[in-house]
Q: What sequence folds into this?
């Protein structure tokens, strides 16, 4: 009998790609999501898969699973700045209470657990590029604090379970990742620019566009997660593509890629928007023998084809996520 992996945030961008990967590797996959930011469309193709089971559940509540679980991948969390501004309390709860429930489940099942952490644990970094030993520059009470601190708490709790209970834990610090199944209107820069290009609108660059990001294609990231899970390394490890670009240059790349005749429109820089971000992946190279392989130009082309294939109704929706039902329950 093949081993079973529980994937939280299974209907999300990364979670759904992880479901695909583990099914391809012949695992039994249990996907879990409450669809607060995830989308059924991302896993629609899996519902008939004999090795896939889906449980709709909010992991901030107790998780009941009777069957054996060998691995847990914890990828449930809002991950886009506009989402965690709209649902700040759920963002804090899923990183803290949700993680606590999953660590407890992992302990009960004697399962190995991998936690999705983030480059946001470095905040607006004063060290460049960011390596794992940098302790970060985070504003706990700023708008991004709900995400950053939830993820920092999540790392602390995970390390505590490792040290106190001897739980098998893995921590991935994930830098900006992109690819098919990102939500078109989630506010992040790649879907934002591509959506604008497809609608014939100007591209909105926040600030003067000198802030930098380093974008990793989803397939590379999934490979990094896969290798990390099966490694014996329990301290946090950066996963991302070090190929850094300023947002202004990136906007020009997207204009060229999409043949957009439209201009660039400058908008105010959101509060605490990190000015620079680039992963130092020396550790991942050494420990996991992993590095990204897909160049930005190719990854962006694949991603643009995906957005182009979406129905027009999706393209013109301003924000198809309605959080009101969830907000009542905070
Ligand atoms: N950004 C932008 N225009 C947009 C959306 C985002 O210039 O329409 C900028 C944003 O200010 C940030 C960068 O792009 O500096 C990446 O933003 P994103 O929301 O994708 O993720 P972050 O890395 O900030 O978490």
A:
């Amino acid at each position: 009998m093949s081993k079973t992996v529980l994937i939280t945030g299974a209907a999300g961008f990364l979670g759904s790609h992880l479901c695909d990967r583990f099914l391809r590797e012949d695992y039994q996959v249990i996907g879990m999501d409450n669809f607060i930011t995830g989308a059924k469309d991302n896993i629609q193709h899996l519902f008939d898969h004999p090795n896939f089971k889906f449980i709709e559940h909010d992991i901030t509540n107790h998780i009941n699973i009777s069957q054996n679980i060998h691995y847990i991948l914890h990828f449930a969390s809002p991950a886009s700045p506009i989402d965690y501004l709209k649902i700040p309390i759920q963002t804090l709860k899923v990183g803290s209470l949700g993680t606590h429930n999953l660590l407890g489940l992992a302990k009960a099942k004697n399962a190995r657990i991998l936690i999705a952490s983030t480059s946001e644990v470095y905040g607006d970094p004063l060290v460049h590029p960011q390596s794992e030993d940098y302790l970060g520059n985070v504003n706990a009470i700023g708008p991004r604090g709900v995400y950053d601190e939830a993820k920092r708490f999540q790392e602390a709790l995970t390390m505590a379970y490792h040290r106190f209970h001897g739980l098998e834990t893995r921590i991935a610090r994930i830098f900006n990742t992109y690819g098919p199944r990102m939500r078109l209107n989630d506010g992040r820069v790649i879907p934002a620019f591509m959506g604008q290009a497809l609608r014939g609108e100007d591209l909105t660059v926040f600030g003067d566009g000198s802030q930098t990001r380093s974008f990793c294609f989803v397939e590379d990231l999934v490979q990094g997660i896969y290798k990390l899970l099966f490694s014996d390394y329990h301290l946090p490890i950066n996963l991302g593509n070090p190929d850094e670009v300023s947002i202004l240059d990136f906007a020009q790349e997207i204009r060229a890629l999409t043949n957009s005749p439209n201009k660039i429109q400058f908008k105010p820089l959101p509060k605490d928007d990190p000015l620079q971000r680039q992963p130092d992946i020396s550790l991942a190279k050494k420990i996991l023998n992993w590095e990204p392989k897909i160049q930005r130009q190719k990854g962006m082309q694949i991603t643009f084809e995906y957005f182009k294939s979406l129905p027009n109704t999706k393209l013109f929706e301003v924000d198809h996520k309605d959080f009101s039902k969830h907000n009542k329950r905070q």
